[in-house]
């Protein structure tokens, strides 16, 4: 079929983004790993006479593969213009949306499940959502919305008890206001579910054969043409690795490839089956056959449960997923290793896969270890099979295959041969481990790194297989049995926090009001930057980025790029009319590059595909410059820093060290983190024809900053630049500074071409260019008494700032000022510096340095506890602030809420009972260990510079009584607009339906400050309140004269009396300050306190862990909107779990970022939610903030560290080599646990480090 020249992906055709303006299906990455673009595909099965519905990722499905299928996007499910579907309604009303960018995909996953299973089980809900990522909510409310469709309701359980919160006895320990739960939503409002609601292109030829013979003929005629079914591997290779194939052959739909045949000996499954269909077929077989016959089938099912997400499992066919192979050949070593003798003839394909039944003495085991439990590529996987001589433990046949330890699947065939005839005993295991390590060699510079860990997994998984044998099982020590048990994938219970019932129902403040855009999120009708309609003469922009970390630009050849069709221009530094280096930030590299990923130029073309292709054709010649500084260690060697040192100090540290008992010293490495907002950086720059004006539509946390940088780049006054911000699909600090630079880059392109520019970064470019959280190295020296009292601390922090200033100075300031956490140390010194390196500049991130820096604090508290042989929680409590005190920088505060949160967390989490239970568990289990940790928090809100706290708001009342509110804050995901509507409704005493917020713009509210540091509601709320109170003061005489009148009457009368109905409100800001020369100041307006406890279970053989329970107690003072606040806490906590446990950024020694996609960088999925999860808002007073509220969005990030320290507590129960660092990823956990297998690995002779370059290095 004819196709547009720039794409053949489903998202652009079926979704019609650029054709019929259906923008609901979101494009987040393009590799099928996030689920934002999920749609439902429906096909009629002529055999079963039924329609089968399945989810698919639109970014991977070629339009040609959908012949004969129906595709439903979120627009086809429901709309605010017609009728919304119950799935959309419940996701919104259960507060399951924040930024909303992932919401259409979530809707489609649940909707598709309901089309197949109108009354799903909780397990089916969890499984259906396994392929969808969310960076905002923490998943719990999303799962909860899905579970409302389940037959068994879990609504309104109190703390997981199964009892309604209203049914407690009066004698309960829970206070009355805690018992009287005003729920976060009312399920009685939900609509009931109605199950009936509902080729040849420019360069590529797509051929769909009608018969099997046609397919074989096509294979002979086009021997290099790939067979394509689901496109889940080939699609990303084409998109990201520049593979090109002129011909595709798609045998999708051939009946000869879609069947299941069962015989007495086994099952034959057609090669066209998707993984989901294979899963269903295997389940059916396992349910019908005796257990001893289905060893292989059950091993396959175990693998399939966690392999990819539901969307991907529904797309690829197992036989065509990698390549075409010869039929009627054994799936043995040569086949799986792709040896030449097992290669194909060009006309041959796999038509089916035969899975024989197992026999009584045949045992099969499938194992895989990945960075997270679900939807992640395996670090190592294994398939093992053993047959014994009848009634013996003598090995008759043995096969062992390993994946991810080489370029292909590896067979340990020589080891297996040597073990034939051996007894299945401990000596056999010992020999097998040594031999398999000799046979399977992983080079020290192997792609993917983790060499020792992968070697350890090879024999650890072999040990698990050894334990599985029932012949040996009776003699296995009981302590070993748990090694065989997989961590379950559980659905979390309902969170049950309470809303104050004393708050008047008619008052919107204090009630769980739904996010004002939630319904639009779930219907896909919320408009983001790239959803805006095409503009006449619009051009697409693609970046040209540096491939060297530090080098001179010798020459740049753009001729080949300009010659390509559709290319309009190439923009470089010479095209910048104003400042190209503004406040240390470089828009286009000139003469020299200072990091890999620096923007050297951009290409403007008529389509993004053309721009991207042309960017690859630009030839740049470099000459490397020394030194090339990548790590903090290298920066310290070269004395390379961005700013002067920041320091605070109290007492006499050196003197105190003379009078303590022990002194310990140590260091902690904390690696960085990618923001991974779902909507990548997006800008639409519109040049005007008059007066050098330009309008930018973009997602940012700081429109004024963008305006400033664009004006500087274009050399025009700021009043010519308008920045408009409606909403963005997540930010987390990543859209504070970076959009200013990217805005300048796009504005220069728009200025040169004179045409609108659409600049939407691909996920890989976004991760490369914009960087993320600062990696940190913390060094400490602690003096303490034997009873655990800390007398002196000397702490140094170094962060990897990257190549330009960005926000690094403020990050270091925050780390230093927050470095005490909740602890009082009378003699305390903290110093911090930002290292200048040749990495992309790291920037603001949720918590602003606190999550990294405070890990060091908790680490040295834990080290002191270990040295004193005391529990960490006891040492923490001994050293916590206990009364009104001054911080190390001389600011007075009251820690009472901190003490209360700590006490309640200990009591209501049953912490001490949990510790005893974990100790008992650890005594009974050798290879599984449990650990608990509780952490306190004192988190400062705001910025120590007063003018960053000021803000204005504009409130208009129209003659019909409707109200328009405009302010300087940005809607990122946090519900800021919703809370501002609540504030205005409260102050004006009118229904929320009367009030509208449109967008944030530098035209309407100038000089706005950044929306960050949990200050959005605080400062913008004060400005809106001020404006509304001024208006009410003007209206008061009219209201007093007509108290029984209506709002509309009062407004009409005010207009008749020439009373202005428009007011600019203003909040001067908290008058904070910090004198760094003196090391003292009134740095913050107030603090947020809290405590969190987590319990984990660790698999010492693999490094996997499971989060069993988390209790969070957060000092919220008075919550303006409990639903939004709890959502912020939960979302931040899950993001913190990712930071502290599974999210790893991998850099090459040359400064190249490897982690540029969901395939390489793993954020938490639905399976990372605790099995039990409780959040409690603790009430207190905060008179300085609006309505005595507190900002909570940033602080919750640190609660993830309770999981980190719980992991270390669990690891401490096993033999270990203990060096605390973050993240506690599976590799770190496994290699920290010491056993006979790690000993074997460490005995292997190592290559001389001077003979190879490691694949990746630590940059902290």
From TrEMBL:
Active site: 1194
Keyword Iron-sulfur belongs to the record: yes
PROSITE patterns membership: FAD_PCMH
Residues reported to bind FAD: 227-234, 368
Cofactor(s) the record lists: FAD; Mo-molybdopterin; [2Fe-2S] cluster
Co-factor binding details: Binds 1 Mo-molybdopterin (Mo-MPT) cofactor per subunit.
Keywords: 2Fe-2S, Cytoplasm, FAD, Flavoprotein, Iron, Iron-sulfur, Metal-binding, Molybdenum, Oxidoreductase
Residues given in the record as Mo-molybdopterin binding sites: 701, 732, 846
GO cellular component, one term: cytoplasm
Binding sites annotated in the UniProt record for [2Fe-2S] cluster 2: 99, 102, 134, 136
Pfam families associated with the record: Ald_Xan_dh_C, CO_deh_flav_C, FAD_binding_5, Fer2_2, MoCoBD_1, MoCoBD_2
Sequence positions that bind [2Fe-2S] cluster 1: 34, 37, 59
Keyword Flavoprotein: yes
Transmembrane parts of this sequence: none
Single GO molecular function: oxidoreductase activity
Main location (coarse class): cytoplasm
Positions with a binding annotation for substrate: 848
Start and end residues of each FAD-binding PCMH-type domain: 199-447
InterPro entries, per the entry: 2Fe-2S-bd, 2Fe-2S-bd_dom_sf, 2Fe-2S_ferredoxin-like_sf, Ald_Oxase/Xan_DH_a/b, Ald_Oxase/Xan_DH_a/b_sf, Ald_Oxase/xanthine_DH-like, AldOxase/xan_DH_MoCoBD1, AldOxase/xan_DH_MoCoBD2
SUPFAM superfamilies reported in the protein's UniProt record: 2Fe-2S ferredoxin-like, CO dehydrogenase flavoprotein C-terminal domain-like, CO dehydrogenase ISP C-domain like, CO dehydrogenase molybdoprotein N-domain-like, FAD-binding/transporter-associated domain-like, Molybdenum cofactor-binding domain
Localization (cell): Cytoplasm
Signal peptide: none
Subunit structure comment from the entry: Homodimer.
Record family assignment: Belongs to the xanthine dehydrogenase family.
Record protein name field: FAD-binding PCMH-type domain-containing protein
Organism encoding this protein: Colobus angolensis palliatus (Peters' Angolan colobus)
């Amino acid at each position: 079929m004819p196709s547009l020249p720039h794409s053949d992906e489903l998202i652009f055709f079926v979704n019609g983004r650029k054709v019929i303006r259906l923008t609901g299906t979101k494009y987040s990455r393009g590799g099928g790993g996030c689920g934002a673009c999920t749609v439902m595909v429906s096909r009629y099965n002529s055999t079963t006479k039924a329609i089968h519905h399945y989810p698919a990722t639109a970014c991977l499905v070629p339009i040609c593969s959908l012949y004969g299928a129906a595709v439903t996007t979120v627009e086809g499910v429901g709309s605010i213009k017609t009728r919304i579907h119950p799935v959309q309604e419940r996701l919104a009303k259960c507060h399951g949306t924040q930024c909303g960018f992932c919401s259409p995909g979530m809707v489609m996953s649940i909707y598709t499940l309901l089309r197949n299973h109108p009354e799903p089980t909780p397990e089916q809900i969890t499984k259906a959502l396994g392929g969808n990522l969310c960076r905002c909510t923490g998943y719990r409310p999303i799962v909860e919305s899905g579970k409302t469709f389940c037959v068994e309701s879990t609504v309104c359980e109190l703390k997981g008890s199964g009892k309604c919160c209203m049914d407690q006895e009066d004698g309960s320990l829970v206070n009355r206001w805690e018992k009287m739960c005003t729920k976060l939503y009312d399920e009685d409002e939900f609509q009931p579910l109605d199950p009936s609601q509902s080729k040849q292109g420019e360069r590529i030829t797509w051929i769909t054969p009608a018969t099997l013979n046609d397919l074989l003929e096509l294979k002979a005629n086009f021997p290099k043409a790939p067979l394509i079914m689901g496109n889940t591997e080939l699609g990303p290779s084409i998109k990201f690795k520049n593979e090109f194939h002129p011909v595709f052959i798609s045998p999708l739909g051939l009946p000869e490839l879609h069947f299941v045949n069962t015989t007495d000996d086994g099952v034959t499954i057609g090669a066209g089956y998707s993984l989901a269909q294979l899963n269903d077929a295997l389940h059916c077989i396992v349910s019908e056959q005796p257990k001893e016959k289905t060893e292989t089938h059950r091993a396959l099912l175990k693998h399939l449960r966690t392999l990819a997400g539901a969307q991907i499992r529904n797309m690829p066919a197992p036989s065509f997923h990698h390549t075409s192979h010869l039929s009627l050949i054994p799936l043995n070593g040569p086949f799986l290793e792709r040896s030449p003798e097992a290669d194909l003839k060009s006309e041959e394909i796999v038509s089916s896969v035969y899975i024989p039944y197992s026999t009584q003495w045949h045992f099969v085991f499938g194992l895989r270890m990945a960075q997270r439990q679900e939807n992640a590529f395996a670090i190592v996987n294994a398939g093992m099979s053993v047959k014994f001589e009848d009634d013996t433990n003598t090995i008759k046949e043995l096969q062992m295959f390993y994946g991810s330890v080489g370029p292909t699947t590896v067979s340990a065939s020589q080891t297996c041969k040597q073990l034939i005839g051996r007894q299945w005993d401990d000596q056999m295991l010992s020999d097998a481990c040594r031999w398999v390590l000799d046979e399977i060699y992983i080079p020290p510079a192997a792609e993917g790194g983790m060499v020792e860990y992968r070697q350890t997994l090879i024999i650890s998984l072999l040990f698990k297989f050894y334990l599985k044998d029932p012949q040996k099982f009776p003699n296995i020590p009981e302590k070993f049995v748990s090694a065989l048990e997989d961590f379950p994938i559980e659905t979390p219970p309902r969170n049950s926090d309470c809303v104050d019932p004393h708050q008047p129902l008619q008052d919107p403040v204090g009630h769980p009001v739904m996010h004002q855009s939630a319904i639009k999120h779930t219907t896909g009708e919320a408009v983001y930057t790239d959803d805006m309609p095409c503009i006449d003469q619009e051009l697409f922009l693609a970046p040209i980025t540096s491939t060297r970390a530090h080098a001179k630009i010798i020459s740049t050849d753009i001729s080949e790029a300009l010659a390509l069709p559709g290319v309009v221009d190439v923009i470089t530094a010479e095209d910048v009319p104003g400042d190209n280096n503004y406040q240390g930030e470089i828009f286009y590299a000139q003469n020299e590059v200072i990091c890999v990923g620096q923007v050297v130029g951009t290409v403007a073309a008529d389509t993004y595909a053309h721009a991207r292709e042309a960017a690859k054709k630009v030839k740049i010649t470099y000459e490397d410059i020394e030194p090339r500084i990548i790590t903090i260690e290298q920066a310290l060697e070269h004395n390379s820093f961005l700013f002067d040192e920041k320091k605070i100090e109290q007492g006499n540290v050196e003197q105190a060290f003379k009078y303590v008992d022990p002194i310990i010293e140590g260091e902690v490495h904390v690696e960085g983190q990618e923001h991974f907002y779902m909507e990548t950086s997006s800008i639409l720059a519109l040049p005007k024809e008059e007066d050098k004006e330009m309008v930018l539509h973009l997602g940012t946390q700081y429109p004024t900053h963008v305006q400033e940088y664009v004006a500087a780049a274009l050399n025009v006054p700021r009043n010519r630049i308008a920045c408009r911000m409606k909403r963005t699909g997540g930010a987390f600090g990543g859209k504070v500074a970076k959009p200013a630079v990217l805005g300048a880059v796009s504005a220069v392109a728009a200025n040169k071409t004179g045409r609108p520019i659409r600049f939407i970064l691909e996920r890989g470019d976004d991760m490369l260019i914009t960087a993320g959280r600062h990696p940190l190295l913390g060094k400490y020296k602690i003096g303490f008494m034997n009873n655990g009292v800390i007398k002196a601390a000397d702490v140094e922090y170094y962060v990897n700032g990257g190549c330009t200033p960005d926000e690094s100075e403020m990050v270091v300031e925050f780390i230093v000022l927050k470095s005490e956490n909740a602890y009082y140390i009378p003699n305390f010194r903290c110093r911090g510096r930002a290292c200048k390196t040749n990495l992309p500049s790291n920037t603001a991130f949720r918590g602003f340095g606190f999550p990294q820096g405070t890990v060091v604090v908790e680490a040295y508290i834990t080290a002191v506890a270990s040295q004193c042989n005391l529990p960490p929680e006891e040492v923490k409590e001994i050293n916590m602030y206990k009364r009104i005190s001054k911080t190390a920088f001389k600011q007075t505060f009251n820690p009472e809420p901190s003490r209360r949160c700590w006490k309640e967390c200990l009591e209501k989490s049953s912490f001490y009972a949990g510790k005893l239970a974990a100790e008992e568990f650890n005594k009974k289990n050798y290879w599984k260990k449990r650990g608990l940790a509780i952490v306190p928090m004192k988190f400062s809100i705001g910025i120590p510079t007063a003018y960053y706290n000021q803000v204005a708001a504009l409130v208009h009342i129209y003659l019909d009584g409707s109200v328009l509110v405009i302010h300087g804050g940005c809607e990122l995901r946090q519900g800021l607009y919703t809370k501002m509507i609540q504030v205005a409704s409260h102050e004006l005493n009118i229904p929320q339906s009367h009030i509208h917020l449109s967008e944030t713009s530098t035209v309407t509210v100038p000089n706005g400050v950044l929306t960050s540091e949990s200050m959005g509601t605080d400062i913008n709320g004060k400005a809106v309140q001020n404006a509304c109170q001024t208006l009410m003061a003007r209206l008061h005489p009219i209201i007093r004269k007509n108290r029984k009148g209506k709002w509309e009457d009062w407004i009409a009368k005010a207009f008749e009396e020439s009373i202005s109905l428009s007011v600019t409100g203003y909040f001067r800001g908290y008058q904070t300050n910090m004198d760094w020369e003196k090391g003292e100041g009134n740095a913050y307006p107030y603090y947020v306190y809290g405590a969190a406890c987590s319990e984990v279970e660790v698999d010492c053989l693999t490094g996997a862990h499971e989060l069993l329970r988390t209790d969070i107690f957060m000092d919220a003072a008075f919550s303006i909107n409990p639903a939004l606040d709890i959502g912020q806490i939960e979302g931040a906590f899950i993001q913190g779990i990712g930071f502290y446990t599974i999210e790893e950024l991998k850099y090459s020694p040359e400064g190249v970022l490897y982690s540029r996609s969901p395939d390489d960088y793993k954020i938490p999925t639905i399976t990372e939610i605790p099995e039990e999860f409780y959040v409690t808002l603790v009430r207190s007073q905060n008179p300085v903030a609006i309505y005595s509220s507190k900002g909570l969005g940033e602080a919750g990030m640190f609660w993830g560290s309770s999981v980190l320290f719980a992991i270390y507590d669990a690891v401490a129960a096993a033999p270990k080599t203990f060096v605390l660092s973050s993240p506690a990823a599976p590799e770190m956990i496994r290699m920290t646990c010491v056993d006979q297998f790690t000993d074997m690995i460490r005995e292997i002779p190592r290559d001389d480090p001077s003979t190879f370059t490691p694949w990746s290095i630590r940059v902290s």
